[in-house]
Every structure is written in structure tokens, then in C-alpha cells.
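Ops channel
N.P.: pipeline sanity check, posting one input/output pair.
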């Protein structure tokens, strides 16, 4: 199997051309190039707004919509099924949203 070089950390990653791959060292994902190229192309991560997360939290927080927006799908499903853990999770997220947004490296 051919290998490509991760653009972010330089690790060698085994991949078939055109396949979606994940670097084992840094965790970045991308599509293995087709042809003689040897660099992994990374898709940019979407930027998320803290203000929009708070608006979603305030109006739709009991349904977990803000959790889906922040990329926490599992917790979004839990919130959806339990009413944001009977409202306690909704209140706690008032303080946790800034820390749950993730960071761009």
C-alpha cells in the first residue's frame, strides 16, 4: 500500500489513492491524493461562533441543539432524549460553552 506524508506533522501514513485517511500521530484527516503527489490535503475545520452557541443554548438548549452545533453529537442525543438532563445540563452549559468549543491549533 502506498504512503503519503501528513501535511501537519510529517508522519508517513499508509493510504490508497483517493481514500479518506486519518494521521495516527496528529489526528488530522484528509483525502489521499491521486497521482504522484505525496502530501495529505486537510479539509479546513469549520469555525464556530460562541455567540451563536449561546443563542442556540438559550432557545433550544433543552433539546441539545447547541451540543450538535458544537460537534458533541453524543451529548446532543442525550440532551434530546432527557430534556438536557432534566434542565441541569442546560444550566451547567451556561458556564461550559466557552470551554466546549474546542481550539484551533
Amino acid at each position: 500500500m502506498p504512503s503519503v506524508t501528513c501535511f501537519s506533522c510529517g508522519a508517513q501514513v499508509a493510504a490508497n489513492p483517493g481514500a479518506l485517511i486519518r494521521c495516527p500521530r496528529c489526528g488530522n484527516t484528509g483525502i489521499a491524493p491521486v497521482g504522484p503527489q505525496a502530501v495529505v490535503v486537510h479539509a479546513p475545520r469549520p469555525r464556530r461562533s460562541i455567540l451563536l452557541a449561546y443563542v442556540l443554548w438559550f432557545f433550544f438548549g433543552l433539546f441539545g441543539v447547541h451540543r450538535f452545533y458544537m460537534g458533541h453529537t453524543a451529548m446532543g442525543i442525550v440532551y434530546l432524549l432527557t430534556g438536557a438532563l432534566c434542565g441541569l445540563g442546560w444550566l451547567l452549559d451556561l458556564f461550559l460553552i466557552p470551554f466546549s468549543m474546542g481550539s484551533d491549533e
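N.P.: looks fine end to end. Residues 73-86 form the longest helix (14 residues).
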